[in-house]
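Morning run. Coffee first, then this:
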Amino acid sequence: MEKVKALMRILAWVVVIGLPLYFMIAAWGSRFGLFEWKFGFGKMIFAWGLPLMVASLIIGVIALVTSFLPVRRRGAILVAILAIIIPVGAMAYANNFKTIAGSLPFIHDVTTDRQDPPMFSQTMLDMRGAGANSPDYIGKKDPRGTELVSVLQAKGYPDIAPQNFAAGPQKVSAAAAMVMRDNYGEINMVQGGGETTLEGTHESFWFGFKDDVIIRVRGDGNGGSIVDMRSLSRVGGSDVGANAARIRMLQTQLDKIVD
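And here it is:
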């Protein structure tokens, strides 16, 4: 029995240390180019993650039971409890993520102007690369090919709309540039045709997923300005609401600066 308890204690420590390390490797391995995101995110997280969490939970439960037989050992009990808490917490997080994703539109392209969305410059298109999601918005269908992205966005994010300012385009463009630099560092500015566009790229902390962002500033014909934004993921099917949340955040920041 002591040998069994010792073995289960070792396996419990493997779960406590190894499970978080496994998910960190999946995320940072994708971010730093050790392997493609489809392997780290698709295989390691979605395909292999759940079986691994279930196996870890089973190990934790067995380790907890054996830690009481025949003599209780506080250290063995503690590590067994941790070996249960970690996979349970991971499964709860995964279930919550799935629930949120299921309640949101399955899209990765969000804009404030669904009829005339801001278009990315050639410089940004070159940065996105040939394998990136399509930069076209008009007529684009969701990755499942069932419905127009514009229709799904209107249903899922009805609050995403242009901003109107009494201030002129020059002042608003300067404020928009400040917001973009604060959030994304180096940005690309394009001026011409009566409008100013500013482009930047957001990179996620864990997997290094990149979403390209554009702000377009135009005059409204009465001395004021109209500001449109767009956020487009380079890869993946659903952004799980990230692009819409980013636009809301940028609009809030711009409101504070201009006003």
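The chain has a mean pLDDT of 94. Good start to the day.
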